[in-house]
Amino acid sequence: MQCPNCRHPESHVLESRPADLGRSVRRRRECLGCHERFTTYERVEVIPLTVVKRDGRRESFNQGKMFHGLSQACEKTTVTPEQVRLIVEEVESFLQQRNYREITSKELGELVLARLGQLSEVAYIRFASVYGQFASVDDFSAILRLLEKRGEQPLRLRSNLSTPGP
Ligand SMILES: [Zn+2]
Question: Which of 13, 17, 95, 120 could cross-link with 77 by S-S, CB 3.0 to 4.6 Å?
Answer without folding.
Answer: 120
